[in-house]
Design a protein that fits this description.
- The strands form two sheets. This protein has a five-stranded antiparallel β-sheet with strand order 1-2-3-10-8. A five-stranded antiparallel β-sheet has the order 5-6-4-7-9.
- It is of the alpha+beta class and about 230 residues long.
- Helices cover about 25% and strands about 45% of the residues.
Length: about 230
């Protein structure tokens, strides 16, 4: 009867499972599975913002007309400040009734018109937001502002390479400790995280925005299983 031995170890940043069989078993019955991580930082090159206007009025038409006028003024102001018209996209339109304190009688309507804007020249980002706020006045609403990378493929490639080398280094350590050698790679599973960096959420109207892009972090995780021989 064959005897199976299993050794498990875990620590921050990796997980290891080493299995081995008697000398009569093939090398492929022995393997080591390790999780490696890689992280690369780069400067963001675009700014994303979700903003718009909210207008309250006594009837639906007045609310809709008012918010549309505000939204158009804000969009025009952002274009004049350096944003391409095609980088401004309507993201939300809504009209909601407002009720008296007793909750039965409608006292007016609240209309919202929001857009998503991409600022591709960060040197203009502060001026763009400032122009939008001034055009919208007290009806301006900003729900999200974040920095991002227009193309993070190069950073992902670097992070992937670092993650694989990290996994291989860890696997080699365990192969040495077990008196074996790394063989062929059997499986590779990967995941990445290159999300944007939020700055503001649910902000009230303001002006003279001071923006600091900072650094964007792209991280990559790879789980690799090697045959041991």
């Amino acid at each position: 009867m064959r005897r199976m031995t299993t050794i498990c170890a875990a620590a921050a940043g990796f997980a290891l499972v080493l299995t081995g069989c008697g000398s009569s078993d093939s090398d492929r019955d022995r393997n080591v599975s390790v999780v490696g991580t890689g992280e690369v930082r780069g400067a963001p090159d675009i700014l994303n913002a979700d903003l718009g206007a909210q207008v309250n009025a006594g009837d639906v038409s007045a609310a809709v007309d008012g918010v549309n006028a505000k939204a158009k003024a804000m969009a025009d102001a952002m274009v004049n400040a350096g944003v391409q018209r095609e980088d401004i996209q309507t993201s939300q339109l809504s009209v909601q009734p407002e009720y008296a304190p007793e909750g039965r009688n409608i006292t007016g309507y609240r209309a919202t018109n929001s857009v998503h804007v991409v600022v591709r020249d960060l040197s203009k980002a502060s001026a763009v937001l400032d122009a939008a706020v001034k055009a919208g006045g007290n009806d301006t609403r900003i729900s999200n502002v974040s920095f991002d990378l227009a193309d993070n493929s190069t950073l992902l490639t670097d992070a992937r390479a670092r993650a694989f080398e990290d996994a291989k280094s860890r696997a080699q350590e365990y192969a040495d400790l077990s008196g074996l050698k790394l063989g062929e790679v059997e499986t590779i599973t990967e995941s990445s995280n290159g999300g944007n960096t939020p700055m503001y959420r649910e902000s009230a109207p303001t002006s003279d925005f001071a923006l600091e892009p900072g650094q964007q972090t792209v991280s990559f995780t790879v789980q690799v299983t090697w045959n041991l021989k």
